Amino acid sequence: MFMPLDVYERKILNALQKDCRISTAELADQVGLSQSPCWRRVAGLEQAGVIRKRVALIDRHKVGLKAQVFAQVKLSAHGRAHLSEFEEAIAEIPEVIECYVLMGNVDFMLRIVTRDIEAYEQLFFERLSRLPGVQEVNSAIALSEIKSTTELPIDSV
Fold it and tell me: What per-residue confidence (pLDDT) applies to 99?
């Protein structure tokens, strides 16, 4: 559900998207509030689910995940009747870091990271192609990354 944000909440979210390790005192100073009201606003944003969680963003290359693959998955007509089975199965594959339901010629778009192309090939043959209801998987290997961010454009809402 959409939650209208005031100017301070927008500033808080923008600052936390850049660095969630920032102290409440630093955050309050950046957004122009005192510490207590700033902390209450952050707590309110967390309680409302606007801030889902705070995490460390890992450089996939530095941990050995060099291949990034985008896979379009089409389910058979019979498979579409069992979407929840597919969704549960895909949630159990740690290499699938994003999964979206699409409209159009394909049913799902997956973003997958693996050690290398050979590891993706193994994942494809041993798991992806065997998922419930899968009719077709079309894979595109990303050669390079031009832009990757987790920062949402809060000010454009």
Answer: 98
Q: Which amino acid belongs to residue 91? A: A
The set of residues, in sequence order, having a beta carbon less than 8 Å from that of 68 and lying 6+ positions away, is 60, 111, 112, 113, 141, 142, 145
Q: Which residue has the tokens 């077709």?
A: 136
137: Cα separation from own chain's centroid: 21
Give the bridge partners for 101, in sequence order.
108
Conformational region of residue 62, where left means phi above 0, alpha means psi within -120 to 50, and beta covers everything else = alpha
pLDDT in tens, 71-115: 999 999 776 777 888 999 999 999 999 999 999 999 999 999 999
Q: Using an 8 Å Cβ cutoff, are 29 and 12 in contact?
A: no
**pTM of the prediction?**
0.88
